[in-house]
Amino acid sequence: MRFSSASREKFRSTGNPVMAQDGDVQYERVAEIGGGAYGTVYKARDTESGKFVALKSVRVHTDHEGLPLSTVREVAVLRRLEQFDHPNIVKLMDVCASLRTEQETKVTLVFEHVDQDLKTYLEKAPPPGLPTHRVRDLMHQLLCGLSFLHSHLVLHRDLKPENILVTSRGQVKLADFGLARIYSCTMALTPVVVTLWYRSPEVLLGSSYGTPVDLWSTGCIFAEMFMRKPLFCGESEADQLTKIFSVIGLPSQEEWPNDVTLSRENFSPHNPQPITDHVPELTNEGADLLMKLLTFDPLRRISALSALEHAFC
């Protein structure tokens, strides 16, 4: 089942998905281009327009009344965001739904296709890497997209170079936030969000979290733009925290969250290290911004909007 043209028009005007019985034939798969926690991603061709798109699917539990209201709401949020046509958010072009079993529906989001992600972009950069002015431009665009999402109460929760697209003209577009939202909408908040190397301390500790998780990930990505390799490469949650504390220092007992089972005493004492010891290419302004992004306490971590006003950006 797929949304018919009439159904899609109703969805665009109401934000409510309506399934139709005309088959998922408009999008012809060309190649598999990725996968992750939310399923496989395909490059496909829109047989009506001839344009390439990205198909990203997730399986959603179906109750006796159809799709859960929470899923409908999440899809509606994505469609409302699309009305703003933000230059740093990948465009959601269509939504398809197919009933796999009586208990499960596959929801497919159809996005514009961009050939290159930030990981590939950084790998292609000639030695010694990106110049500071280019990093500044990429960061400004990334923060613009993130500020837009957060202003509409949307958390990305899986920011990493593979989920940040860069067009041939150098335009940054945040991707994959939609699947993260839909995948999690019927689940309790779980620490299995954000690829390990980009997870914030509060997620690693199993504490409550909100929009600051995306700013921590942004800080890790910021450092990687200069280093061309991840800043913190842990092999487990505990190892990831150890590597983080070896750079930013072990937080004080007063800063340690109360709602976690892991004790501060499990970690060796560390004093904060100059961030330029690890990312020597940073300017003074860049180092200041990075440390504001890599602040342990999420309530003191800089917001996307404030980061846009920082001297580096």
TrEMBL record:
Ligand binding (ATP): K56
Domain of life: Eukaryota
The Protein kinase domain, residue ranges: 27-313
TM region positions: none
GO biological process, one term: signal transduction
Family membership: Belongs to the protein kinase superfamily. CMGC Ser/Thr protein kinase family. CDC2/CDKX subfamily.
Name by which UniProt lists this protein: Cyclin-dependent kinase 4
Organism of origin: Silurus meridionalis (Southern catfish)
Primary localization: cytoplasm
Enzyme class: transferase
Organism lineage: Eukaryota, Metazoa, Chordata, Craniata, Vertebrata
Any one GO cellular component localisation term in the record: cyclin-dependent protein kinase holoenzyme complex
Stored InterPro entries: CDK, Kinase-like_dom_sf, Prot_kinase_dom, Protein_kinase_ATP_BS, Ser/Thr_kinase_AS
PANTHER family in alphabetical order: CELL DIVISION PROTEIN KINASE (PTHR24056), CYCLIN-DEPENDENT KINASE 4 (PTHR24056:SF129)
Compartments, as annotated in UniProt: Cytoplasm
Assigned EC number: 2.7.11.22
UniProt entry keywords in alphabetical sequence: ATP-binding, Cell cycle, Cell division, Cytoplasm, Kinase, Nucleotide-binding, Phosphoprotein, Serine/threonine-protein kinase, Transferase
